[in-house]
Amino acid sequence: QKEVEQDPGPLSVPEGAIVSLNCTYSNSAFQYFMWYRQYSRKGPELLMYTYSSGNKEDGRFTAQVDKSSKYISLFIRDSQPSDSATYLCAMSVRGTSGSRLTFGEGTQLTVNP
Amino acid sequence: DAGITQSPRHKVTETGTPVTLRCHQTENHRYMYWYRQDPGHGLRLIHYSYGVKDTDKGEVSDGYSVSRSKTEDFLLTLESATSSQTSVYFCAIRDTEETQYFGPGTRLLVL
Fold first, then answer.
1. Which of A9, B32, B77, B96 could be cross-linked to A107 through a Cys-Cys bond (beta carbons 3.0 to 4.6 Å apart)?
2. Contact B100/A42, CB-based, under 8 Å?
3. A34 contacts B56? CB cut-off 8 A
4. How far apart are alpha carbons B54 and B69 in whole angstroms?
């Protein structure tokens, strides 16, 4: 069983929709949670990170962490065609040597105009 | 973009040949990482470095070696390339927080 599970999709939504992307994890030691966006043939780009349960908002993006359920989410409001990309969740145990990130497989999102 | 460059950006090589990929950073970060990305597997850590001449293995290190003789450069070497090492390779650095920033990637095809 993978430590981090993420539905690879693909997910297709109309422009303006609210998008919900999710990951579950099994390692209760994970403390840092990140979301990356990766456009086709590009490197992953850090979108948001948090180390606490609850919500963190940045513009149209909201990251949500529920440590009791080992579940994290990324919400995208008013989705735009430019949001079409693969979204990867990642998590790590804070303070360990090298801060190894464990990634989900990524969810491929297409926002249709 | 965290000042990370990778070279080459694309490479085609033959089975059994040695290959070296280079990662260069301009911001003096201590930690550097090499990942590979494959369909169905996401990003997997190959090796990482926590300082000059200090390196350690990741989860998929077999067949790879690394070297770091200067803070700004982290080299990944495939001693004898195999078709299973066809992949996209990403270098990353760790910022002051527990976050990592990635380079543009190197696409490697081993024939």
1. A9
2. no
3. no
4. 9
Nearest-CA neighbor of B87 among B54, B67, B71, B64? B64
Specify the residue for token string 């990003």: B43
Residue with tokens 């200090």: B54
Distances (CA, A) of B59 to A2, A48, A101, B15, B102: 13, 25, 11, 23, 18
Interface test with B, best of A91, A99, A108 (most B CBs within 10 A): A99
Comparing A95 with B48, the larger pLDDT belongs to B48
Nearest beta carbon to residue B99 from set A6, A43, A49: A49
Give dist(CA A90, CA A23) in Å, integer.
9
> Tokens 């990592």 belong to which residue?
B100
Strands B106-110 and B10-13 turn out to be parallel
pLDDT at residue A40 tops 60: yes
- d(CA B92, CA B69) in angstroms, rounded, equals 17
Q: Are residues A106 and B105, on separate chains, in Cβ contact within 8 Å?
A: no
Chain A residues near any Cβ of chain B (below 8 Å): 6, 8, 32, 34, 36, 41-46, 49, 51, 88, 90, 92, 94, 97-101, 103-106
Say yes or no to pLDDT of A96 above 70: no
pLDDT at residue number A97:
59
The mean predicted confidence, pLDDT, of chain A is 92
Pairing label, strands B106-110, B87-94: antiparallel
